[in-house]
Design brief:
globular, mainly beta, 1 helix, Porin, disordered N terminus, twelve-stranded antiparallel beta barrel
């Protein structure tokens, strides 16, 4: 497996819940700032239709070869709701297996404030599997991230995100993600989130992507993110 593959995998902060099992690396840091604008499919033809806006911050730092600490925070408004979230997490690489398979575990503690239900404490635990591979189109990776989150006063949110990425050029990454979630009061929601990531300097990447609901919702959105590694 090429030496750049673990670094690429650790950069896949396309979504707050999908960092994969790869540790950041001792003394290495990463920050992602992203914005999402979304609306329902029925509102696409109406320029002044309902819109949802969300800004997110994801940051992590490698404590040693196996442990990574990070922050996952966001603020969103639209469709008659406002929500602010923040979570501090620890992720650990717990297993390396034959064939390049890796397994990681994560635990997070945070807070959620919502305009409708008031919000409260959040506790999140998760497992991640991933591996790198080589292909005719360049090096790539795949991962599966599964989390369960308890939200005060006693609701559960379940998520499972499947990610596939390719790096056809040194400065270009193509990422496809299938996002699955089960939310209180909303049931199951499945979304497709493809994106293109361009490396424009040694330490910075620009990500442009889409969010397309396939089941349980009709939302479509456009996302832009700036990544910084240090």
């Amino acid at each position: 497996m090429r030496s750049w593959v673990p670094a690429v995998l650790a950069l896949m902060a396309a979504a707050p819940a999908a960092a994969g099992p790869w540790p950041r690396g001792e003394g290495q840091g990463f920050v992602s700032l992203s914005s999402l604008i979304a609306t329902g499919r029925d509102s696409l033809a109406a320029p002044l239709g309902d819109m949802r806006f969300q800004g997110s911050l994801f940051a992590e730092y490698g404590l040693d070869a196996d442990w990574t600490v990070g922050i996952d925070a966001s603020h969103g408004r639209g469709f008659g709701e406002d929500e602010t979230t923040g979570l501090l997490f620890l992720r650990r690489l717990v297993g390396r297996f034959a064939g390049g398979h890796l397994l990681g575990a994560e635990f997070g503690l945070g807070w959620r404030q919502h305009s409708l239900d008031g919000g409260g404490m959040r506790l999140r635990a998760g497992l991640s599997w991933g591996r790198g591979f080589e292909s005719a189109w360049g090096g790539g990776w795949m991962s599966l991230d599964a989390t369960g989150e308890w939200r005060q006063p006693g609701e559960m949110v379940w998520k499972a995100d499947l990610t596939l990425g390719l790096r056809p050029r040194d400065d270009l990454m193509l990422i496809g993600q299938l996002q699955n979630g089960h939310y209180p009061g909303a049931g199951a929601i499945v979304k497709l989130a493809p994106s293109v990531v361009w490396q424009w300097s040694d330490a910075a990447h620009l990500q442009l992507g889409l969010s397309l609901a396939l089941f349980g919702d009709d939302e479509v959105g456009v996302k832009i993110a700036q990544w910084f590694a240090f």
